[in-house]
Amino acid sequence: MYDQTPSNQLVIKDRPFLSLTIAVIMIILAFVSFLFSNDYFALFIFLFIGLVFLAVSQSTTIVADQIKRSVTISNRSIFGSKEVEVPFGHIADFDVETSRTRSSHRNRGANYRLILIKTNGERMPMRSVFTSGYNTKARQARELCQFLNLPGWQDKATNIFQAAVQSQAKLTQQLDTVDHGTTSGVKWTIEVSSMSGKPVSTRWFSPDFTCPGKFVLIAQKPVGTLNIPGGGLISNLALQVYRHMLGIYGFLPSDTPGFDPAGIITAQDTDFDQNFTVLCNDPGFGQSILNQWTIIPCKNWADRNPLKTISRSEQPGQLVVLFSPRGVHVAVMGTLPRIQTDDLINLGVDVVKAHGGGIRQ
Fold it and tell me: Which of the listed CATH numbers 2.30.29, 1.10.3210, 2.60.40, 1.10.760 matches domain 2-16+58-158?
């Protein structure tokens, strides 16, 4: 539960309503069973379960205060209360800690708790017990990081699927810059990401055209594959597939702001729409990106390198063009020979200049 009034405070309250309810029910059942049947065994069992739930019921209040420049954590239980205050300057991050049962390797066997990470590396639990519900705690960690304006708060996961995608992205974050330069006034670099020593993707990047708060993803697809219309379960599943794909390429959530309500748009160009799917968080902005100077270079790439359901090893992988707040990314799976690397550079330069990016000649 959140309370952000006044605006200089962020208040997060965690009340153990479920465990307290179970504790009360168990204690009532204990005395009812004893009163009506004199069953000492049932009395002991129900009372024991109720007391256990009562013992682990902990009420937590977290107050981040911009005026005091500190975060105060207050925990209360039947054993007493404890309050800790940590100055903003001692805080490096907030995260979610996981505890799994030995017999389980699935999320359903996991419990979580919110932790504060200090600048000296100390990991301080904000609650003493682990409970279910990863997503709530992940959102709380992100809210706190955002409120304190900690570095990288935009890329904090807010659900367990996003966390899994980011874990995949971290695996591919071994980046090697293999080329850089300026072409027609557009500055660019090329990086190859690898995992366990094997190339995963080749990424061209230019910071010369940015989209603050917006993104447009142009993803190559096998020729003629139908786009999935917006809305409904299938569309939501398709979004998760695209999110996973972006994680494989090494992109982070800050590269695709407003991803969850994003939708698919078309360019109204038959050849382009047969070869590419376009996903964006602002349809009007997305349509402005899809001008002829963006469409033509993409179609030329698809003509030379069509994406097939079953590709030969010498064929380039899927092409992805991402207009993001950081800049423009053009990426393909795997590595490219020199001639196709030149094609990738030219495509990137063309789509940047299509929107006025780069130094005017």
Answer: 2.30.29
